[in-house]
Design brief:
Helix content: 25-40%
Structural class: alpha+beta
Strand order of the largest sheet: 2-1-10-5-6
Shape: globular
Radius of gyration: 26 Å
Number of strands: 10
Mean pLDDT: 83
Distance between the termini: 81 Å
CATH architecture of the largest domain: Alpha-Beta Complex
Number of domains: 2
Oligomer: single chain
CATH superfamily of the largest domain: Oxidoreductase, molybdopterin-binding domain
CATH class of the largest domain: Alpha Beta
Strand content: 25-35%
Order of helices and strands: HEEHEEHHHEEHEEEE
Length: 204
């Protein structure tokens, strides 16, 4: 016997409600998955920590950084990858290469270790970027990098912290870590030092 019109109507309504429920569940799942995981809040620190390749920690105060060789880059164009144009600023601070020389173990190492070493710049919100030793020490743009202390002749704003790493040669400021807290030397994973070539290195 053919299905009644009423039965067909009820069946179609049930299918429609099921589809609506499934669609709503998918939207809810997508919303949960896309919820951003927020980083730790930015906070200002009074000192900057440099960690050498052997784990030795060297701490700098703002005054100690100001006593190092200073550099000023004028009319630096700041562009954010998502924000777009931010502004044009005069930026000043301690020459980064001068500060990194206080990592004595790394400084005394030979080329073999240097070429397998990278530097992590980390902010108080755990945001971090990586540069190779070669980029910083043997590249013209790298040698212009600074631990920024002033912008437009004034100390950095609270939301930037006392210290900010800045690379004037970068097109975007995504690598300019705000509220810089730690600068750390590390060897590439799997690196094995050759003691005969590099007495300062240690075997992994």
């Amino acid at each position: 016997m053919p299905e009644s019109i009423l039965f067909k109507t009820i069946k179609m309504t049930q299918m429609k409600n099921h589809s609506t429920t499934t669609y709503a569940a998918i939207l809810l799942f997508a919303a949960i998955c896309s919820t951003p995981v927020f980083a730790a809040p930015l906070r200002t620190v009074e000192t900057l920590t440099l960690i050498d390749i052997d784990g030795t920690k060297i701490t700098f105060t703002e005054q100690e950084l100001r006593e190092m060789k200073q550099i000023t880059e004028e009319k630096c164009i700041w562009v954010g990858e998502s924000k777009g144009f931010i502004g044009i600023f005069d930026c000043s601070g301690a020459l980064l290469t001068e500060a990194l020389k206080y990592a004595r173990k790394t400084e005394a190492a030979g080329d073999y270790l240097h070429e397998n070493t990278y530097v992590i710049f980390r902010g108080t919100d755990e945001y971090q970027i990586i540069c190779s030793w070669t980029e910083l020490m043997r590249n013209g743009d790298g040698r212009r990098a600074m631990i920024m202390l002033e912008k437009e002749g004034e100390p950095l704003a609270d939301d930037e912290g006392k210290f900010r790493v800045f690379f004037p040669g970068d097109k975007y400021v995504g690598r300019s870590v705000k509220c810089l807290d730690t600068t750390e030397f590390r060897c590439a994973e799997g690196f094995v030092a050759k003691k005969k070539d590099d007495p300062a290195a240690t075997e992994e």
